[in-house]
Predict the 3D structure of the following.
Amino acid sequence: MTKPRVRFAPSPTGALHIGGIRTALYNYLFAKKHGGSFLLRIEDTDQGRYVPGAEDYIIESLKWTGLIPDEGVGFGGNEGPYRQSDRKAIYSKYAHELVERGHAYFSFDTPDELEARRQQEENFTYNHHTRQGLNNSLTAGMDEAKFRVDSGVPYVIRLKVEPNREIHIRDLVRGDVVFQSSELDDKVLLKADGMPTYHLANIIDDHLMHITHVIRGEEWLPSTAHHVLLYEGFGWKDTMPHFSHLPLILKPVGNGKLSKRDGAKFGIPVFPLSWDGATPEESFEGFREAGFLPEALINFLALLGWHPGGNQEMFSMTELIDAFSIEHISKGGARFDYDKAKWFNQKYIQAMSNSDLALRIKPLLNKKGYTVSDDYLEQVIGLMKERVTVLPDFVDTGYYFFESVKFYDEETIQKKWQADLRSFFTEMTEIFATFEPFESAPLEEKIKNRMQETGIKPGDVLPLLRIALVGTMKGPAVFDTISVLGRDETNRRIHQFLEKVS
């Protein structure tokens, strides 16, 4: 195989859906597997849907997930411009060339005229059946059409689809796909404002940027027939890229395509990064802000529609690149299992070093106003990492490592506390004040020996000691917690607890 060139070509119309990241990932893996290039192209030809900030969001999302383009908007390259709005003159030239070749035509129908036709004809489509009765260069003649164009009459350019032929596509995921040209409409290629539609722009750009493989969502499969006709019309069929259409990402319940609204409905992120929209309804939490590691998200997304076989689930980026092949992409949709995403994140947190985790957790601590030493934070992480799912858990569920206990398990206190335990708790503070070494194992041995000597059961003391220290029955082992909190803080919390139960 020659070195492939693939592109990720999102539109800057808002936050980038997580399905877009999966598309970018599969393109990236394929390019890297075969020593090729991964391009970022911004398809902003629909200026009416352009959203300020969306382009920067796309770039930041790719950087956060580690899917760094070799070329593209914000990354340089020799085949630019990589933003379609900067290529307007290129599209106009090629659209007019297609008219000259007889594969497209000028259409002068006004929006009002087309709307009137739709009112008359319920399923009106601009195609080989209807075009002869409409206002275009096929009915007016080319001389008249060119006169109108030169005179400034508004027009669009439409693809001329000839009927009664089969259009065959060899899709690398779905196999042979066949379309009947008689069922296709005459797509608009160049709009009245001079901007191209997606159909024209992506064909020209893919050709000029030497794209060898188009890997995109299955929603674009029906349009591929028009794209093949465009390649034929330009005489580029021999260099037409290979097509692969990816399966849908389905809702958590398994029915229907995962949408941005599903995030709010199911209480889950469906975007890589948070997005602040104009309204609360248009604002969404991202995986990054929910506390996911990008490595875990990539691993989760890679297996959402692709798997090389076998039982391996944990893949580094290098392993994904080595194992990836389009042939192992499934045709059927993949259910968005958020619990599985959290499982991956938990596994990646557990595998990460305490020092690396500390770098990611520090900003969360700073946001809460907590200030601790690096050494202390790494000790806390060591205790908590087996018990958390997302990064904020270190700060939210483990808040008691960074400030005093705010809430006590009153129900357990009511069941367990007895006044005659006060003297033993006081004795423990005396032991903690001087005991050396102040470490988990010897501390535990000392206290449990003392319990045995005094006839006190561990089950009577240790749950209450845990509540005194952290407020809850959940959390790391009691003596591990004591060793991290230190003697002074441990004793302060026990005295605070004794005041509460007095």
Residues 404-501 form a domain with the Arc Repressor Mutant, subunit A fold (CATH 1.10.10.350).
